[in-house]
TrEMBL record:
It holds the Pfam family MlaD. Residues 250-305 form a coiled coil. Keywords: Coiled coil, Membrane, Transmembrane, Transmembrane helix. Signal peptide: none annotated. This is Phospholipid/cholesterol/gamma-HCH transport system substrate-binding protein. InterPro entries: Mce/MlaD, MlaD_Phospholipid_Transporter. The keyword Electron transport does not apply. It comes from Simplicispira metamorpha. The keyword Transmembrane applies. The chain crosses the membrane at residues 15-37. Residues 45-107 form the Mce/MlaD domain.
Length: 317
């Protein structure tokens, strides 16, 4: 049997149990209050209302992020009278300065992961977003493009199947390319492919050979002409000698012209004297003509006075 001292009742057992219960309850309440405080339940906030035509993927308690940092939390989701979804977001006052009147809000639903609400403020100099503001949210659903991608992929596979079919045009084109490659590797090569037959290709080769021979002859003629023109016994030295002689003749001609200039000056002086003499001769002629007229008048007078004279001719000395 156990000792009698161990079976004695504990003093104030009810009081101690009630104190333990109160302590446990206080601990639970304190933990809850701390969790609420840690989650910002007692922090002053402002309300932001986001409107969207579909709120699929949005749940109460999810965060709204700005540059990857949570600045708000979804408090309630409700249906508006116009059929749109209203997402009520609580934004702490200390983070509200990141939201401006020009801010843009997006609702992104990715292929992997949940839905995210994001805020973008391009101009932080704008006025702050007021409390209770209503803003539309832009939706970006990556899964909405999956049907279109599947249809495009299906169409692409159908086109590939048509291209790789045995009777497709691609097979015929590849056969023609193979034939062309074989002809290129043949004796005529690319020239025969371009001309269409071996005879025309041979004609082109013959023409090229004749052209090469003609060019060789032209090179020889050019070298010969160079020797005849620029050589020691060529035309150019003779032309140079002729030019030297021509320069000498031109120098003599210049000297002769100088002498002709002097003679012309003397001739001009003689001409001036002749002009003076010609003026004197004019005066003398006028005097002679006057004398002749006087003599003619005298002769006429004599003929009038002696009309019976047989010889009326008067001979002047």
């Amino acid at each position: 049997m156990p000792p009698v001292d161990m079976l004695r009742p504990v003093a104030h057992l009810q009081l101690k149990a009630a104190a333990l219960l109160l302590f446990t309850l206080a601990l639970i309440v304190g933990s809850g209050l701390y969790l609420l405080y840690a989650r910002g339940a007692f922090e002053p906030t402002q309300t932001l209302v986001l409107t969207a035509d579909d709120s699929e993927g949005v749940v109460v308690g999810m965060d709204m992020t700005f540059s990857g940092f949570p600045i708000g939390r979804v408090r309630r989701i409700e249906l508006a009278p116009d059929g749109n979804a209203r997402i009520i977001v609580d934004v702490p006052r200390k983070d509200a300065h990141w939201l401006r009147v020009s801010s843009v809000f997006t609702l992104v639903r990715g292929l992997v992961g949940g839905t995210n609400i994001r805020a973008y403020s391009g101009m932080l100099q704008d006025a702050p977003l007021p409390d209770g503001a209503v803003r539309p949210v832009l939706r970006g659903d990556a899964t909405a493009e999956i049907p279109q991608l599947m249809a495009t992929a299906r169409e692409l596979l159908a086109n590939l199947t048509a291209l790789t079919a045995p009777d497709a045009a691609l097979g015929a084109s590849l056969g023609q390319v193979q034939t062309l490659t074989q002809r290129l590797q043949g004796p005529g090569g690319a020239l025969q492919v371009l001309m269409g037959n071996a005879q025309d290709a041979r004609k082109v080769i013959t023409t090229l050979e004749r052209t090469n021979a003609l060019l060789a002859r032209l090179d020889g003629m050019a070298a010969k002409a160079d020797t005849q023109v620029f050589g020691a016994a060529g035309v150019l030295p003779e032309v140079r000698a002729s030019v030297v002689q021509l320069n000498g003749l031109l120098a003599d001609a210049r000297q002769s012209l100088k002498k002709v200039d002097a003679v012309l000056e003397q001739a001009q002086a003689v001409g001036a004297n002749v002009r003076e003499g010609t003026a004197d001769l004019g005066t003398l002629r006028a005097e002679v003509e006057s004398n002749l007229r006087q003599i003619e008048g005298l002769v006429n007078e004599l003929q009038r006075k002696w009309p019976f004279a047989r010889d009326a001719e008067v001979k002047l000395p």
